[in-house]
Amino acid sequence: MIALRAPDAALRESYLAAHDEFVAIGEGHRDGDGVWVEAPDEGFAGVTFTRAGLETPEGFERFAAHRLDQAREDSPRPAGHVPCTFLWVIDDADPDTYLGSLSIRHRLTPFLLEAAGHIGYSVRPSARRRGVATAALRLALPRAHDLGIDPALLTCDETNVGSARVIESAGGVLEDVRGGKRRYWVPTGA
Question: Is the pTM of this model over 0.70?
């Protein structure tokens, strides 16, 4: 059964294997040498997590802690970014295997309203087409509701039929298509 788990350093090896899968199909989040980069700006020192750094237990612990901290209102973040709850998707039968991630953005900026929405998710390539995203989104909706989000805006590329099905199966109602993005409002309450 699919479950959501707070970012946890115990998932380091599986997370890195998933990262390699994303990179292999051209879906990696690489920026230069970094696996994850948030550029510095006024009031934010910036952060870079390299592959080599994440391979160390200490480096990965720092990465997981950074993800957890992003849910706090007072956590440092780049200008224009909002508090965000990051959750990792696992299977209860194999809780040490990272299947994907989900993020719940606590409020919308003009950019998020147009292109990204409240909730984003990704599933590692080897775990796709097994209902992982559908189950993870259903589990995330009550958490979004607890954050005062109802309904939640979710978007997907106009050509991403699988993601559109995931959102529609959760009760998503298509509002429109803008800039190649399908925009859905999904109820989060019971």
Answer: yes
